[in-house]
From TrEMBL:
It holds the Pfam family 3HCDH_N. The lineage of its organism: Bacteria, Pseudomonadati, Pseudomonadota, Alphaproteobacteria, Rhodobacterales. InterPro entries: 3-OHacyl-CoA_DH (IPR022694), 3-OHacyl-CoA_DH_CS (IPR006180), 3-OHacyl-CoA_DH_NAD-bd (IPR006176), 3HC_DH_C (IPR006108), 6-PGluconate_DH-like_C_sf (IPR008927), 6PGD_dom2 (IPR013328), NAD(P)-bd_dom_sf (IPR036291). Keywords: Oxidoreductase. It comes from Paracoccus albicereus. This is 3-hydroxybutyryl-CoA dehydrogenase. Residues 6-183 form the 3-hydroxyacyl-CoA dehydrogenase NAD binding domain.
Length: 291
């Protein structure tokens, strides 16, 4: 089987990046979201990000035009049934993902590979709710998708070798690098990254440092491209909290206890860049620390 058409569920920050890289690699992309506005926004963001690549001479104007021409959108989830590969990139909530798979599965052609871009949820459990656990995989991209080299490939207990090999080939065609992770909470990247971010929030909560000093320490003292609080805002504080909860519930170890301050920011609706406020306030010219 060869993969030519790809369905992307969710036009948010991960969905639009995934649509971008697949279209640029020559795949036909069909993106869906419950919100037309989110899809319109995603298309203009993809165009802006492609322009950025054109201006840095990474791709040509023709590459950009061809990529934009390969992306279609639909409000009907069932339209994705005829694609060869479906990548679910909806909100990081198991009930949402399960409901999507339940709605989608009756419309899928038998050979379609089904994947989830979940950053933490059990692939085996998600797969078990579908009609094709052997053709189901975790397919985890990093943000910003057009820039980050890594894709985590996660096999559920029932995923067959053919599906894994096929997806490995897709990662290569995208020009990215695959890391294989076993199906345990948050896989590899987030198992390591999220406790670090959570610890940075504890460092702030306990008054060890301010937002600025914590971020500067990790940027200048550990050569991280972004400080952990800036990165948390970039990922989304709701996503960070959801992943910590998956680690805490799934591994039952208090070392994964989400920091109460992280919970408070999420409860306030201060989710980071996407809502204009998180550990920084993004509503002015330059980001201003909120603590
Ligand atoms: N689309 C296309 N290109 C983009 C882009 C986008 N959305 N964002 C940035 N770029 C490109 C720029 O054009 C630039 O390209 P060149 O190298 O060709 O010049 C390059 O990326 C660097 O961009 P900038 O110069 O504008 O900015 P920067 O040097 O500050 O880098 C960054 C920005 C790449 C985001 C960098 O700060 C970084 O690497 N941050 C850490 C990101 C990270 O850790 N991501 C993983 C998060 S964890 C995750 O995603 C997993 C999860 O499940 C939560």
């Amino acid at each position: 089987m060869t993969i030519q058409s790809v369905g992307v569920i969710g036009a948010g920050q991960m969905g639009n990046g995934i649509a971008h890289v697949f279209a640029l690699a020559g795949y036909d992309v069909l993106m869906t979201d419950i919100s037309q506005e989110a899809m319109d926004k995603a298309l203009s963001l993809i165009e802006r990000n492609l322009d950025r690549q054109v201006s840095r001479e990474r791709i040509s104007e023709d590459d950009k035009k061809a990529a934009m021409g390969r992306i279609r959108t639909t409000k009907q989830l069932s339209d994705l049934g005829q694609t060869d590969l479906v990548i679910e990139a909806a909100t990081e909530r198991e009930s949402v993902k399960q409901a999507i798979f339940e709605d989608l599965v009756p419309h899928l052609k038998p050979e379609t590979i089904l994947t989830s871009n979940t950053s933490s949820i059990s692939i085996t459990r998600l797969a078990s709710r579908t009609d094709r656990p052997e053709k189901f995989m975790g397919f985890h991209f990093m943000n910003p998708v057009p820039v980050m080299q890594l894709v985590e490939l996660i096999r559920g207990i029932a995923t067959d070798q053919k599906t894994y090999d096929l997806m490995h080939g897709v990662v290569e065609k995208l020009g990215k690098t695959a890391a294989t992770a076993e199906d345990f909470p948050a896989f590899i990247v987030n198992r390591i990254l999220m406790p670090m971010i959570n610890e940075a929030v504890y460092t702030l909560y306990e008054g060890v440092g301010s937002v600025k000093s914590i971020d500067e320490s990790m940027k200048l003292g550990a050569n991280h491209p972004m400080g952990p609080l800036e990165l948390a805002d970039f990922i989304g504080l709701d996503t960070c909290l959801a992943i910590m909860n998956v680690l805490h519930d799934g591994l039952a170890d208090t070392k994964y206890r989400p920091c109460p301050l992280l919970t408070k920011y999420v409860e306030a609706g201060w989710l980071g860049r996407k809502t204009g406020r998180g550990f920084y306030d993004y509503r002015g010219e330059t980001p201003v620390p909120t603590r």
